[in-house]
Design a protein that fits this description.
This protein has 233 residues and is α/β, with parallel strands linked by helices. It is built from nine helices and seven strands, in the order αααααβαβαββαβαββ. A seven-stranded mixed sheet has the order 3-2-1-4-5-7-6, sandwiched between helices.
Amino acid sequence: MQARRYNYLFLTTSHAPLYFFLCNFAGMKTIKKYFPELTEHQLEQLSSLDALYHEWNDRINVISRRDIDNLYEHHVLHSMAIGKMLHFKPGTQLLDFGTGGGFPGVPMAILFPECQFTLIDGTGKKIRVAQEVCQAIGLENCTPVHRRGEEEKGHYDFVLSRAVMPLADLVKIVRKNISREQHNALPNGIFCLKGGDIQEEIKPFKRIIEVSPLSQWFVEPWFKEKYCIYLPI
């Protein structure tokens, strides 16, 4: 990826559209490789994310500007990894806690159009990005809301999170939001995307937690030492 950033510095204005096209093409090729069942409509929605997040990230920084060109691998595909761990049944209610600009909630809502997603974040300008993206691609099953986790009163089958805070702290806040009614193959609980050394963080839950390395699904080197954690509540 160093080479891609190097080449970008020398792009003229006339070459920039080609660069973004190639990034989009490569990213979507990777998505289709791992999710071949996606419909044309879903692929169109996913393909639209590249231009939308580039545009909004220039105004409101929701993704590191050094990482925005890795949107599909580091953010979209990373978010969709949760869908490899469990295929949510239609009607499942999910809360994306600390969504930022819409991750993992937006890609997951595209992946599971018959499920309902509520995306919350305490930073209003980040939620605005998620709202604008959802509106632009017609993502009707996804509702981004400016709200802190402590203020959330709704009940959900699962809470999704992408390394927002230590797992123990997350459990304390969202335990109140986990519904007692069960609809899926796994009991209701939390799916959390984490990276690096997570052993101390998961220690209090070691008897019930399930840790899946993303490298079992995705071969790209970036996914080494990246995990999807499932914790029943």
